[in-house]
């Protein structure tokens, strides 16, 4: 495995070299947008030049136009390389189980960077703030917001906010001040950094990076509360850091002497405006998405696109208004998730989910790889042992102090206090990442002389936290015996109890007169259900909101699946009708339940289902009705499969395959017609052969065969009966001629000989036994009880035909055949 | 019953505090609330509870109110219903929702867990035969889902049945067709909700501060 990996590395390396050797100086990946414009211009000029030259030398058959495609080519290529790197890394499970993927990706970046360095002697590729903040970060954050467990998040919102806001400020201030103090004490030699610049540096180092945190914590399954504390904090404090950074940046450019109390107050105010404004923009966009998805039914294919585009727009809008873009996109995702999941088609929801993950995972990979590549650059490596080591130390120590202090305060108010080990993990999970690096690169070299030192230090802190802390996180979690996340497979009972229990809590709060979480939550829920859902959700979607119903639905599906598997095992679904195996609790006479089951199967919620329902103190008839419904569906599928295989190879034409907006396969009227005609011809042939005295082979009907075959008419009736027999389901309707002209040949109930003769089979048996196989025991017992409106089922139960059911070969009565033949012929001619 | 006839002073509080684990302040707040609910009478009756406005939206209001009048929840090994409760009973029922103390042994944790689950179980088991029968369960589920507006009664019934079926399959395993599952016993109930961290969830913040004026 490893060897293969190395081979791949070298392969990649060599390909890379080819590319790099060609002159690609400068910002290749840097500003995509800008170069796109340039690109289009240059391509125009290229073409015109080309036109001129072709006048002279004739048409070149092939030409190598590297500059023509350079930028997009490189971008795509880098993405490919990163993905391949991930592929190689993920192939080695024994490595990734020890070292987190993010760390490995950074190392992969080192190697790539080394190659480029070796080839170029200068680092041509690095992560630039523009690319990072505009093209890589948004999708990761959007994904985080979209998949945020909202309830958990808002339950712990207090704690998260305290850590994200106060904790981050504390980290920034303490780091900046301590470094400044150390410099004053002479620990770092001669550096040209002022107090404000130290604070600026502190603020960019303060953010815990969500990308790094997700990458590490998703491999260590800690309990929910701990996860949401770390993760929520890392998400929100990104916004806070960026705001802090901007404020301090403004201060630095303002210069020390000009800062007075007014400016500081303005800074603090802007902090809140930026943070809350950003969140508000996000909320507005989230609501907008929800509203939009209410009416995108007709453009289902591009429906998922709205979420991405509007999410991205919320990010850009916030950026444009110099509000916190990260907070904006987080809240956008969080706000819309519930409504769009309810509004959109199931397929679209899946698409969004997958695309979101694909984008986020992809850019996460690219971010880490580029973090690694950026390191291999001689320019930024300015070594100052004191500065770097002290920064590392302070970052770690202050994180611990901050977390412990804040949690200590929080625990006095929390109902379920955070435990000591949780606090350790929270502190240790303070991973710094690409956000810090991006901010560091954004520093202005003119204002801050020691920019490179800061970038270098940031990188070292990032590597230290992501690689070292990332690797040690898992053993630490094991060692401290941190409560892990439980595997949640909710049962219906649990769901119900949970629901009940939430109501109980609310009620107790109401009664005891306390205003607590539950009180608030119930009020919000009430508001949400009555107003928000009303506005933002499709009426049809509102129904499916109930979680209990969801689980119920899941259970039903599971049941159906089990029945199908069981059916496949036994080779038929006949056992479903055999009530012994399914009716667990029912103590009923065989025949009665048999009838009911069949009634349920044949006519959708027919009148029968209500007639003989005894109040039996047991688990339910209704339950079985539900099961039956599920089974019916399953059976319909099964029957379809069977029909597909044996009956008629339909010529499915995917006529719309090239259409971008339609997916449906062609269901042509003609096709149905054709099936009908073929079958009819088939029948006619067999009739004539029977008439000519060609003795049909005596069929020995085996029991299993019979069962298998029974499904066909039955299953067929599910879909066809509804369409073709639309109106006349009445008990005695002898629907020989149907206005629609399309009759389901598999379903000619009254063609059954028994019916016409009006002889009960157990009487007629003696006369007909020449070719009739004896009826099964059940059929004999049951038939007399069958009510008249179930006549359609008669052929089903007493069917003695061979698998080739439509050739009615073993019907002995010639007289009958004549009438049938007449009928058929008249039908064919029409 | 009706142990605190006169307006309670500290000595009576200390008795209650010992019994329920509430602090004096919390008992004071609860007492105020009690007076407010009972219109300064000594006992609470069902219609007092029915007057609480916020409770009107609660789908399982009836069950919860009954829980306050259920002798099983008074820690006295009694059975049956009462018509009115005094302050002591009120506080004792409330104490089921008290947050556990920070330092608990495993044993204590297990005990609180049992108590809390017993409370829930009693809410289901209305006829006090130690078994939640299907009828009882159906009733609760119907009430529970009655407010959701979208689910009909039939669906609620089906859901209750499905849940019961699930319970039966979990706790009994394979059943013969003619076997009959009577209902959920408390032991089954404990087992079924094993993963449900009730001791850290069935709790309410009882403030020392008086917020009763804000509630209707």
Automatic annotation (TrEMBL), chain A:
Cation/H+ exchanger transmembrane domain mapped to chain residues: 81-479
Subcellular location: Apical cell membrane; Early endosome membrane; Recycling endosome membrane
Main location: membrane
Region listing for Disordered, in residue ranges: 703-730
GO molecular function, one term: potassium:proton antiporter activity
Reactions this protein catalyses: Na(+)(in) + H(+)(out) = Na(+)(out) + H(+)(in)
Ranges annotated as spanning the membrane: 73-89, 101-119, 153-173, 193-217, 224-248, 268-292, 321-340, 361-381, 387-408, 452-471
Presence of keyword Phosphoprotein: yes
Matching Pfam families: Na_H_Exchanger
Gene Ontology CC: brush border membrane; early endosome membrane; recycling endosome membrane
Protein's membrane topology: Multi-pass membrane protein
GO biological process: regulation of intracellular pH; sodium ion import across plasma membrane
Keywords: Antiport, Cell membrane, Endosome, Ion transport, Membrane, Phosphoprotein, Signal, Sodium, Sodium transport, Transmembrane, Transmembrane helix, Transport
Residues spanning the signal sequence: 1-26
Membership in a protein family: Belongs to the monovalent cation:proton antiporter 1 (CPA1) transporter (TC 2.A.36) family.
Function: Plasma membrane Na(+)/H(+) antiporter. Exchanges intracellular H(+) ions for extracellular Na(+) in 1:1 stoichiometry, playing a key role in salt and fluid absorption and pH homeostasis. Major apical Na(+)/H(+) exchanger in kidney and intestine playing an important role in renal and intestine Na(+) absorption and blood pressure regulation.
Name recorded for this polypeptide: Sodium/hydrogen exchanger
Source organism of this protein record: Maylandia zebra (zebra mbuna)
UniProtKB/TrEMBL annotation, chain B:
Subcellular location, principal: other
Gene3D superfamilies assigned to the protein according to its UniProt record, in alphabetical order: EF-hand
InterPro entries noted in UniProt: CHP3 (IPR052490), EF-hand-dom_pair (IPR011992), EF_Hand_1_Ca_BS (IPR018247), EF_hand_dom (IPR002048)
Pfam families: EF-hand_6 (PF13405)
A GO term for molecular function: calcium ion binding
Subcellular location: Cell projection, Lamellipodium; Cell projection, Ruffle membrane; Cytoplasm; Membrane
PROSITE patterns per UniProt: EF_HAND_1, EF_HAND_2
Example of a GO cellular component annotation carried by this entry: cytoplasm
Keywords: Calcium, Cell membrane, Cell projection, Cytoplasm, Differentiation, Lipoprotein, Membrane, Metal-binding, Myristate, Nucleus, Protein kinase inhibitor
EF-hand domain mapped to chain residues: 112-147
Mode of membrane association: Lipid-anchor
GO biological process, one term: cell differentiation
Family (UniProt): Belongs to the calcineurin regulatory subunit family. CHP subfamily.
Protein name: Calcineurin B homologous protein 3
Organism in which the protein naturally occurs: Astatotilapia calliptera (Eastern happy)
């Amino acid at each position: 495995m490893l060897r293969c990996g190395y081979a791949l590395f070298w392969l990649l390396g060599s390909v890379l070299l080819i590319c790099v050797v060609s002159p690609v100086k400068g910002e290749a990946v840097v500003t995509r947008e800008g170069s796109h414009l340039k690109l289009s211009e240059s391509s125009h000029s290229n073409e015109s030049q080309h036109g001129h030259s072709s006048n002279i030398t004739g048409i070149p058959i092939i030409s190598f136009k590297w500059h023509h495609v350079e930028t997009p080519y490189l971008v795509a290529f880098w993405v490919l390389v990163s993905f391949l790197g991930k592929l190689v890394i993920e192939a080695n499970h024994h490595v990734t189980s020890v070292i987190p993927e993010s760390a490995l990706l950074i190392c992969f970046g080192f190697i790539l960077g080394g190659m480029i360095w070796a080839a170029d002697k200068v680092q041509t590729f690095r992560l630039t703030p523009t690319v990072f903040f505009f093209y890589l970060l948004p999708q990761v954050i959007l994904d985080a917001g979209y998949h945020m467990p909202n309830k958990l998040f808002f339950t712990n919102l207090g704690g998260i906010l305290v850590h994200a806001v106060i904790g981050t400020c504390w980290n920034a201030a303490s780091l900046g001040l301590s470094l400044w103090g150390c410099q004053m004490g002479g620990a770092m030699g001669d550096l040209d950094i002022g107090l404000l610049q130290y604070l600026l540096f502190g603020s960019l180092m303060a953010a815990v990076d969500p990308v790094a945190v997700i990458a590490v914590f998703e491999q260590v399954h800690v309990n929910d509360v701990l996860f949401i504390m770390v993760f929520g904090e890392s998400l929100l404090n990104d916004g806070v850091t960026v705001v802090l950074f901007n404020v301090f940046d403004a201060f630095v450019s303002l210069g020390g002497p000009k800062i007075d109390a007014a400016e500081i107050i303005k800074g603090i105010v802007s902090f809140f405006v930026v943070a809350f404004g950003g969140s508000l923009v996000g909320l507005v966009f989230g609501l907008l998405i929800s509203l939009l998805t209410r009416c995108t039914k007709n453009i289902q294919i591009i429906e998922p696109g709205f979420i991405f585009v509007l999410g991205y727009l919320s990010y850009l809008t916030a950026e444009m208004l110099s509000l916190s873009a990260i907070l904006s996109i987080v809240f956008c995702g969080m706000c819309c998730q519930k409504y769009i999941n309810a509004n959109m088609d199931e397929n679209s929801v899946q698409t969004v989910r997958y695309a979101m993950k694909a984008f986020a995972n992809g850019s996460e990979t690219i971010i880490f790889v580029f973090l690694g590549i950026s390191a291999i650059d001689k320019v930024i490596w300015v070594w100052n042992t004191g500065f770097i080591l002290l920064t590392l130390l302070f970052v770690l120590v202050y994180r611990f102090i901050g977390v412990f202090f804040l949690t200590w305060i929080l625990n006095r108010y929390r109902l379920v206090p955070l435990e000591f080990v949780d606090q350790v993990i929270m502190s240790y999970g303070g991973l710094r990442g690409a956000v810090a690096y991006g901010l560091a690169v954004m520093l202005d070299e003119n204002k801050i002389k020691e920019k490179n030192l800061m970038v270098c230090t940031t990188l070292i802190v990032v590597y230290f936290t992501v690689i070292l802390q990332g690797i040690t996180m898992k053993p630490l979690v094991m060692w401290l015996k941190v409560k892990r996340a439980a595997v949640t497979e909710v049962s219906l009972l649990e769901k119900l109890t949970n629901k009940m229990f939430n109501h109980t809590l609310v009620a107790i709060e109401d009664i005891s007169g306390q205003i607590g979480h539950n009180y608030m939550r119930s009020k919000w829920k009430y508001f949400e259900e009555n107003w928000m859902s009303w506005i933002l959700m499709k009426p049809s979607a509102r129904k499916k909101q109930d979680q209990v119903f969801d689980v119920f639905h899941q259970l039903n599906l599971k049941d159906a699946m089990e029945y199908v598997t069981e059916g496949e095992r036994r080779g038929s679904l006949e056992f479903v009708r055999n009530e012994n195996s399914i009716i667990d609790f029912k103590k009923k006479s065989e025949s009665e339940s048999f009838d009911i089951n069949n009634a349920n199967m044949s006519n959708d919620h027919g009148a029968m289902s209500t007639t003989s329902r005894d109040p039996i103190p047991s688990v339910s008839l209704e339950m079985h009705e539900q099961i039956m419904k599920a089974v019916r569906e399953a059976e319909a599928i099964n029957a379809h499969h069977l029909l597909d295989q044996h009956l008629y190879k339909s010529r499915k034409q995917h006529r719309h395959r090239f259409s971008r907006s339609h997916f449906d396969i062609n269901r042509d009227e003609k096709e149905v017609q054709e099936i009908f005609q073929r079958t009819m011809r088939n029948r006619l042939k067999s009739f004539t052969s029977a008439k000519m005295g060609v003795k049909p082979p005596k069929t020995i009907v085996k029991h299993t065969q019979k069962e298998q075959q029974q499904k066909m008419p039955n299953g067929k009736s599910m879909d066809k009966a509804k369409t073709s027999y639309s109106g006349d389901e009445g008990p005695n309707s002898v629907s020989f001629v149907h206005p629609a002209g399309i009759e389901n040949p598999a379903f000619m109930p009254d063609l059954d000989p028994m019916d016409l003769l009006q002889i009960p089979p157990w009487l007629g048996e003696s006369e007909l036994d020449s070719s009739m196989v004896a009826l099964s025991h059940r059929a004999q017992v049951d038939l007399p009880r069958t009510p008249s409106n179930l006549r359609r089922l008669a052929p089903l139960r007493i069917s003695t035909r061979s698998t080739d059911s439509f050739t009615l070969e073993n019907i002995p009565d010639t007289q009958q055949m004549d009438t049938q033949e007449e009928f058929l012929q008249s039908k064919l001619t029409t | 019953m009706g142990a605190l006839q006169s307006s309670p002073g500290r000595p009576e509080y200390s008795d209650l505090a010992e019994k329920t684990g509430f602090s004096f302040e919390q008992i004071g707040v609860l007492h105020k609330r009690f007076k407010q609910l009972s219109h300064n009478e000594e006992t609470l009756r069902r219609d007092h509870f029915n007057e609480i406005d916020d409770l009107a939206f609660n789908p399982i209001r009836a069950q919860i109110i009954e829980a306050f009048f259920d002798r099983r929840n008074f820690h006295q090994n009694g059975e049956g219903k009462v018509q009115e409760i005094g302050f002591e009973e009120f506080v004792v029922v409330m104490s089921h929702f008290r947050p556990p103390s920070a330092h608990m042994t495993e044993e204590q944790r297990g005990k609180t867990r049992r108590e809390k689950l017993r409370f829930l179980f009693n809410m289901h088991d209305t006829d006090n035969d130690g078994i939640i029968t299907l009828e009882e369960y159906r009733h609760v589920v119907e009430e529970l889902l009655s407010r959701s507006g979208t689910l009909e009664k039939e669906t609620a019934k089906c859901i209750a049945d499905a849940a019961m079926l699930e319970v039966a399959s979990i706790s009994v395993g394979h059943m013969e067709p003619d076997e009959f599952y009577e209902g959920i016993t408390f032991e089954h109930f404990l087992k079924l909700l094993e993963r449900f961290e009730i001791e850290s969830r069935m709790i309410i913040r009882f403030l020392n501060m008086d917020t009763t004026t804000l509630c209707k």
